[in-house]
Automatic annotation (TrEMBL):
InterPro entries: Homeodomain-like_sf, HTH_TetR
Organism per entry: Chitinimonas prasina
The keyword Iron-sulfur is annotated on this UniProt entry: no
Taxonomy of the source species: Bacteria, Pseudomonadati, Pseudomonadota, Betaproteobacteria, Neisseriales
Domain HTH tetR-type: 34-94
Protein name: TetR family transcriptional regulator
Coiled-coil ranges from the UniProt annotation: none
Alphabetical UniProt keywords: DNA-binding
DNA-binding region: 57-76
Signal peptide span: none
Length: 238
């Protein structure tokens, strides 16, 4: 006979079912939110590459990302916050190629005997040519295969009118690259590694800009010649 009293066990089972359903729904919504946020960040990278930092709008970002306009302000506290998080996103997904290049050069130089790196001679000249070749090929690859990331990087590095928190992150990012290049400069005997590293990085960025504005193939006279001349000063080749 039905007494109208629901067993405690059944109540507990129902609660578990409700909690499980609620948790699963929450995780699904969270995944959708993360996906939408990622699409907005990716779209912002694309638009910065196309239009520059000062040419982007919430409406254009929403259209590029294929999301409602309201989401561009739901996930981000204004355009400055969106740009700052976009730079963080760029460092996470695109800038790792720069770090990998530095690591590869470090491994290459670390495997060479000190007498080759620090004493003049044909072997040291060969090392200079190999480093020149690797850097030139890296610039070619970035311009050909990763033009969006490269354009975004150059936009952030070249603009002075940035929100202070973004500017601080851009300065720290460049300092990280300079530090990595300075370590390589020390390995080949530079007597001013930080200065040399800053100059090398500036030459690389200018050549990247040239490659972004010229159709391939990019000649050795543009890349190998200028990188080689810059590195000859670092290697102190006369």
């Amino acid at each position: 006979m039905h007494t109208g009293i629901i067993p405690v066990e059944l109540i507990a089972m129902n609660n578990l079912t409700i909690e499980h359903t609620s948790s699963a729904t929450g995780r699904k919504l969270q995944r959708r939110g993360e996906e939408s946020r990622r699409r907005i960040l990716d779209a912002t990278l694309v638009l910065i590459a196309k239009r520059g930092l000062h040419g982007i709008t919430h409406r254009a970002i929403a259209a590029e990302a294929g999301v409602p306009l309201s989401l561009t302000t739901y996930f981000f506290n204004g355009m400055n916050d969106l740009i700052e998080q976009t730079f963080d996103h760029f460092v996470l997904v695109a800038a790792k190629d720069n770090v990998e290049m530095l690591n590869q050069l470090n491994l290459y130089l670390s495997d060479l005997p000190p007498e080759i790196l620090l004493r003049s001679g044909d072997a040291r000249v060969a090392v200079h040519l190999e480093v020149t070749r690797r850097l030139a090929n890296f610039i070619r690859m970035q311009a050909e295969l990763h033009s969006v990331g490269l354009a975004v990087e150059l936009n952030f590095l070249s603009l002075y009118r940035l929100d202070p928190p973004v500017r601080a992150k851009v300065v720290a990012y460049r300092a990280m690259l300079v530090s990595g290049i300075a370590q390589l400069a020390r390995m080949v005997g530079s007597d001013q590694p930080e200065v040399d590293a800053s100059l090398v990085l500036s030459v690389i960025h200018r050549l990247q800009f040239e490659c972004m504005n010229l159709p391939p193939p990019w000649p050795e006279s543009l890349l190998e010649a200028e990188i080689g001349r810059m590195l000859a000063l670092v290697f102190r080749l006369h």
